[in-house]
Design brief:
Layout: H1 2-14, E1 31-32, E2 39-40, E3 48-52, H2 53-58, H3 64-68, E4 74-80, E5 85-90, E6 98-102, E7 105-106, E8 126-133, H4 137-140, E9 147-153, E10 160-168, E11 172-180, E12 186-197, E13 206-219, E14 222-236, E15 249-265, E16 268-284, E17 294-312, E18 315-330, E19 334-352, E20 355-366, E21 370-382, E22 387-398, H5 402-406, E23 412-413, E24 421-433, E25 437-456, E26 463-482, H6 484-487, E27 493-508, E28 513-514, E29 521-534, E30 537-548, E31 553-565, E32 568-575, E33 583-585, E34 588-589, E35 594-603
Parallel strand pairs: 6-9, 23-26
Antiparallel strand pairs: 1-2, 3-8, 4-5, 6-7, 8-9, 10-11, 10-35, 11-12, 12-13, 13-14, 14-15, 15-16, 16-17, 17-18, 18-19, 19-20, 20-21, 21-22, 22-24, 24-25, 25-26, 25-28, 26-27, 27-29, 29-30, 30-31, 31-32, 32-35, 33-34
Length: 606
């Protein structure tokens, strides 16, 4: 597979077949909200990928998890398909080190990162996805250790109705309805979907119901956003957590409510936020014996934040405070509760005409560690109209999950005495932008301490959670995008591009065996090609090569052919075109070739 990888890399670099759907450093007028204060791409001093709604619709994917696997430096490790379960990892971290947000409001699961992507949002209801790569603790506080994923929903300010149906192999059936309708000062949007499949092998069937409602309330420049979502997943979990049990089964339900507002007073903006999240998890180790080993977990998390942003003649000053509470009631983990909170500040300014600087801190209080201080600084220098240079440095931290603290089974044992993880991060990079092509390169270094891992000294022992690892990671990200039609408008190819990530880690664990920390991606190559077949019919290819540390490598090709006829959007989707065998976890085989077709009927007035 290494030979295949380097052959493909050489071919596409030398042939200039390099394309990225993820719009990094691309549109200076885009305002990015994955920051303490919204900032335009022109002043952006961090690596942030923006995946907009048009890109989402062109990709051969039908759920948020699959969209994320096409983003550079994001390692989307899946146990189940079509959004059943996936772990989002950024820049070689772990699945617990990625913070998830909806409209800038934190909604990560405190029980386990395995539930972080239980997100009740349909793709049709997403305006864009912003992916912050690298530490975000000085912006968001705990758990933005390796990065953050912010899902921005549509505001419901346009009249729209759509209904879609997708059918495919393995008896896949996916029906959805999406509608939005503004009423005076209220923007409203609603989505519902029902997805089922018999599965691609024994005990991989699933039944997923998804519902969400968004409302935006506008009083001039004052905007309040409300969101409620519900997702119910029932699925066969063949060998998900143990290869010895192919009949595992799981049922999760997630309910999320968020409210946020921006209230302007001249040069002052006050932004309150509130969230509430409940996750219910019913897990059976052997569904043929449902009463033998069954875990029932109920997790509650809720919190509030208020931020004030003042625009002055010397720059923009932001101050915020937040408080949060997390609870779990579990037949295995017991009943536990923890409170946490903190204060943060940020100062954005232009010391020189072409230099933008953002510096800030997050001071956080958690019962087990007391107050801790997490600073950071980012800088962007616009060398000329085409070239921008960035640099950043900052500290990051993560609090252990309830599972890491309290879980007990014959094979896995938690540790209530865990310390928090912490790291120092450095990054430099540049971007080059012209009308017909763009390029970017980044180099980053992360020095982690007290990294949490499931470890053991011999295969005869159970996995135990310990702060066993010091982990130094160095990485490189390269990207290049070309728009051939902007060079010659008669060409059928619209975009061609590449994203490449290389990661290298130096782990220090003594004599311990590691379960999770050192199986990150070492090489990741994403190649996307979008072109017209004939007039009105377009095709999008995605080629993925991934080589994992101490694991396997694989090369997967996905494609989608689509067209628009009057009020109908039609597509043919083929995932894993060449039917390669692969897995993201040992013993959890992913599906081979999977063909599906779909149609969406849309109205923009009714």
């Amino acid at each position: 597979m290494k030979k295949i990888f380097f052959t493909i890399l050489t071919f596409f670099v030398c042939g200039s077949i390099i394309y990225s759907q993820q719009k990094e450093y691309k549109l200076n007028e885009v305002v990015v909200t994955s920051a303490k204060s919204p900032v335009s791409f022109a002043h952006l001093a961090r690596t942030v990928a923006v995946i907009d709604s048009s890109t989402i619709q062109s990709l051969p994917a039908n759920n948020i998890q699959d969209i994320l696997q096409y983003a550079g430096s994001v390692d989307l490790r899946t146990r189940g398909v079509e959004g059943v379960q996936g772990d989002a990892v950024i820049r070689g971290g772990t699945f617990e080190q990625t913070l998830i947000l909806i409209n800038g409001v934190k909604i990560s699961d405190p029980q386990t990162g395995h539930h972080n992507l239980n997100i009740p949002i349909s793709l049709q209801n997403i305006e864009r996805i912003e992916i912050l790569k690298g530490q975000g603790s000085r912006i968001f506080g705990p758990n933005a250790f390796g990065g953050a994923i912010n899902i921005i929903t549509k505001k419901g300010n346009e009249v729209l109705f759509s209904v879609s149906e997708i059918v495919g192999e393995n008896n896949l059936n996916d029906f959805s309805v999406n509608t939005s309708y503004p009423l005076g000062i209220f923007g409203n949007s609603f989505s519902y979907s029902k997805k089922k499949s018999d599965g691609y092998r024994h005990n991989t069937d699933f039944d997923i119901t998804n519902f969400s409602f968004n409302q935006s309330i506008s009083f001039g420049s004052q905007i309040t956003s409300l969101f409620f979502g519900y997702v119910d997943k029932k699925f066969g979990a063949n060998s998900f957590y143990s290869n010895s049990f192919p009949d595992q089964w799981e049922h999760t339900t997630t309910k999320i409510f968020t409210a946020s507002s921006d209230i302007e007073f001249a040069n002052l903006i006050v932004s309150p936020k509130f969230y509430w999240r409940r996750n219910d998890d019913d897990y059976r180790l052997d569904n043929t014996r449902p009463g033998w080993y069954r875990n029932i977990h109920k997790t509650y998390s809720y919190g509030a934040e208020i931020q004030s942003t003042l625009k002055t003649s010397i720059g923009t000053i932001s101050l915020s405070t937040e408080i949060a509470n997390e609870e779990i009631k579990s037949t295995n983990l017991g009943s536990h509760e923890r409170r946490k909170g903190g204060i943060s500040g940020e100062f954005n300014f232009n010391p020189f005409e072409k230099l933008f600087v953002s510096t800030g801190f997050f001071a956080y209080d958690y019962a087990e560690i007391g107050w801790k201080f997490w600073p950071g600084i980012d800088a962007a220098y616009q060398l000329n109209d085409e070239i921008k240079i960035i640099a950043s440095a900052g500290k990051a931290f993560r609090l252990p999950s309830f599972t890491e603290l309290y879980y007990v089974s014959p094979a896995n044992v938690g540790n209530p005495n865990l310390k928090h993880e912490e790291a120092i991060n450095y990054e430099v990079g540049f971007s080059f932008l012209r009308q017909s092509y763009e390029a970017s390169a980044n180099l980053f270094y992360k020095d982690g301490k007290n990294i949490i891992d499931w470890a053991r000294q011999s295969p005869q022992e159970p996995w135990k959670v310990e702060n066993v690892t010091e982990l130094k990671t160095i990485g490189t990200e390269l990207g290049f995008t070309i728009y051939p039609q902007k060079i010659l408008n008669t060409l059928p190819v619209t975009k061609i591009g590449l994203q490449y990530t290389y990661l290298s880690s130096d782990r220090k664990t003594g004599n311990y065996q590691s379960k999770y920390v050192l199986d990150h991606l070492r090489h990741q190559l994403l190649v996307n090609i979008s072109h017209y077949l004939i007039e009105g019919i377009s095709q999008n290819w995605i080629l993925r090569f991934e080589e994992r540390e101490n694991f396997t490598s694989y090369f997967i090709v996905d494609k989608q052919i689509s067209t628009h006829i009057k009020s109908f959007d039609l597509f043919l989707r083929i995932n894993n075109l060449f039917n390669h065998a692969y897995s993201d976890f040992i013993g959890v085989q992913m599906p081979g070739r999977w063909i599906s077709v779909g149609a969406t009927y849309s109205l923009d007035k009714f």
